Amino acid sequence: MTATPLLRRLTVAALSLSAVLACAACAADAPERDVASLDGPAHAPTDTAVPDTSARDDERPQLRLDDRPERFGQLIGEWTTCLLANGATGGEGAGPGAAGPDGSSAIVLDEPVPQTALDACAHKLPRQPPELDPALNPDYRDDFLAMVSCMKKGGMRIHVVEDHSTGQSLLNWTYDDSTSPSDADLSRRCQLEAFG
Prior knowledge:
- By secondary structure, this protein is mainly alpha-helical.
- The protein has one domain (3-195).
- Helix content is 33%, strand content 6%.
- The protein has helices spanning 3-17, 69-85, 115-120, 140-153, 184-195; strands at residues 158-163, 170-175.
- Strands 1-2 form a two-stranded antiparallel sheet.
């Protein structure tokens, strides 16, 4: 498993359950925006450090499409607390007591996160909802395009981007420009409608 698909899948789960979707793959290309990311509840590992989740995948917490943001924040908080206890170090403002915007732990990890910590805590890294996993949802592409269509109809100025760098097609979306409106409630409603 490479880092990029893992981070993208975790990002999709994070944003969907925080009721805000954002294009993690397009962060470098898009203008500066205030959008939700994993930097809130926790900072995901870099491309050089990927937890080995294969051996204990069935032990990992399973997220649901209709989970509340608080549950996601709690699970990410438990994962990052485990990372800190196993050799990861926290950056400015780090610590399990810091609260994120949704009440979740706002632990910021220094990068790179040691591979030993990632491996020790792999069983705590939440699995995304099956509906959001292209490998488990045969209708993923159609569902994703339906979600983007719904968001556009609701007034969000976004477009689909496709990444083929990993040898497989990974869908994501990004804002058309820096003045495009964001609507967390619309994003969440459209995702539940399309994937639910």
